[in-house]
Amino acid sequence: MFTGLVTDVGQVLEVEKRGKLRRIKIATSYPCEEIAVGASIACSGACLTVVACSRDGDRTAFEIDAAAETLACTNVGDWAQGLRVNLERSLKIGDELGGHIVTGHIDGVAKIVSRDDFDGMAQFWIEAPRQLSRFIAPKGSVALDGVSLTVNEVDGDRFSVLIIPHTLAVTTFGERKTGDALNLEVDLMARYAARLSESARG
């Protein structure tokens, strides 16, 4: 379980194909002694399990395995050496819930259709897969590449989000441009509300 508040931006060091599996090594500023093998880390929104952890110079390097389901439902299959990724470690009892409840289970891949920069901020228009757009509403929450964001406007399958200067500086959104693919997780409450509504109609 996560909050969508990014606590580090890591960098992909290696991507190794192992049949239908990919072993990915990511550099982070998290202390190695605080990362247990088997721990969950949200990597650009995708909840992935640490399978190894070591020192890489003055940085920590942890490794994760991305299986077929992850590669099919996220943008992880496009990751390459040098890519920067948003990181968040899983919640602990007593942690502040500053964003919204994020599971790290990616629903699909969305695409940036425009970016408009002004006053140090950036407004993005995002196109969601059609089967997911019904879960997105104005003033609702979404997680994009692991970042908890508030939806501003909705127009069909497209919606807008406004990224403030701080978020642009401490996440990968400062680097994002038109055409980029983003991991999308819709709000868990919106999904349950839709399911309850469907059940009531049935």
Question: What structural keywords apply?
Answer:
12 strands; 4 helices; 202 residues; six-stranded antiparallel barrel; single chain; Elongation Factor Tu (Ef-tu), domain 3; mainly beta
Number of strands: 12
Question: How do the strands of the widest beta sheet line up side by side?
Answer: 1-2-5-4-3-6
The number of helical runs is 4
Radius of gyration: 17 Å
Describe this structure in words.
The chain is mostly beta strands and 202 residues long. It has 2 domains: 8-89, Elongation Factor Tu (Ef-tu), domain 3; 108-191, Beta Barrel (Elongation Factor Tu (Ef-tu), domain 3). Helices cover 15% and strands 45% of the residues. The protein has 4 helices and 12 strands, in the order βββββαβββαβββαβα. The chain has helices at 68-73, 130-133, 165-170, 188-201, and strands spanning 8-18, 21-28, 40-43, 46-56, 59-66, 84-89, 108-118, 121-127, 141-144, 147-155, 158-163, 181-186. It has a 6-stranded antiparallel barrel. A 6-stranded antiparallel barrel has the order 7-8-11-10-9-12. The longest helix has 14 residues, at 188-201. The protein is globular, with a radius of gyration of 17 Å. The two termini are 31 Å apart.
